[in-house]
Amino acid sequence: MEERTYLRNPATLEAPAVRPTSAKVDVQDNQTALALCGNQNENLKLMERRLGVRVGQRGTELLLSGPSDAVAFAVRLVENLEEMIRAGRTVYREDVEQAIKVLGRGGAESLGEVMLGPVLKSSGNRQIAPKSIAQKRYVEAIRSHDIVFGIGPAGTGKTYLAMAMAVAFLQERKVKRIILARPAVEAGEKLGFLPGDLAEKVNPYLRPLYDALHDMMAGDRASALVEQGVIEVAPLAFMRGRTLNDAFVILDEAQNTTVEQMKMFLTRLGYNSKAVVTGDVTQVDLPVGKMSGLNHARSILRNIEGICFSEFSEVDVVRHPLVQEVIRAYDKFEVAKAEASKEAAAVEAQDPSEPETPEVEEEPIAT
Description:
The chain is an alpha/beta fold and 367 residues long. It folds into two domains: 5-115, Ribosomal Protein S8, Chain: A, domain 1 (2-Layer Sandwich); 120-318, P-loop containing nucleotide triphosphate hydrolases (Rossmann fold). Helix content is 42%, strand content 15%. It is built from twelve helices and twelve strands. It has helices spanning 30-37, 42-51, 68-86, 93-104, 111-115, 133-144, 158-171, 198-216, 219-228, 259-266, 293-300, 321-350, and strands at 5-7, 22-26, 54-58, 61-65, 120-121, 127-128, 147-151, 177-182, 231-235, 247-251, 274-279, 307-311. The protein has a six-stranded parallel sheet with strand order 9-8-10-11-7-12. Strand 10, helix 10 and strand 11 form a beta-alpha-beta unit. Helix 2 (42-51) runs parallel beside helix 4 (93-104). The N and C termini lie far apart (106 Å). Belongs to the PhoH family.
């Protein structure tokens, strides 16, 4: 079979009807080509592994070969990444990973529409921006709604993006302070008696929030704002009885709130304030029989104007690629477990637990 070659420049607009088995993409610029390839060609190697194509480089040209569908997808991926680079965005290995997910899911949005337009520049001068369609819609929801729920599995960027939006709002003087809260619930393990004052006792529960905060701001700047009370990191119990005006409030790990705690938190919101509530309903650490406040809120608040629920799934995971596979494996296990329980219940309902013992007529005792 004759191998076809697809030249993108300037023929992209006049692409042949038959999908190619090889392609040549010329980015026409050495600096763009280097940025696209990544450090030691790590971006190209990732494309090869994920898409099942071979990628070679000759000057400013990328030579792609492999199955026709994979090559066509790779050409589209390269074009979108080139657009991002020309817009001033540095493309890292994890950006390529997420770009493959975004383009693979389809939809009207291009990669640039999803991943361009940074929310914030981190302390390391890296841009923090959405990396999936769900993340983009989540950021838009935070901008346009006063209460937003971000619900989904670990690693989908729910808390991280909420923190980035909070810091951006503070820098733009849209709010006067940031309040970060978490319920202090043990995640399966027993931590025992913790030494120190109250702040030191709850610090292990709040450490992830501090980590994210220091990733977005220089350490001394973040510490200074915490000391001044501009940024407050506290356990959820500290919210009781307060009215939070001119504040960006984040409640993390909300699946571990009770119904009463969730109501208490949501009713703290004052004028010119935003609240973002994040959690994973599959990781509830409350005592058995205690309903999660996050699940309850999702069931009764969904149709209230001004409140938005943003749902994430395993395809939105932005951590190590294996995290997505781990989540899928656990979900598959839970589904199989539920189906086995249903089958066992059905069998038990059909068959009586114990067969009835026939009555034996006793013989009269001779006197």
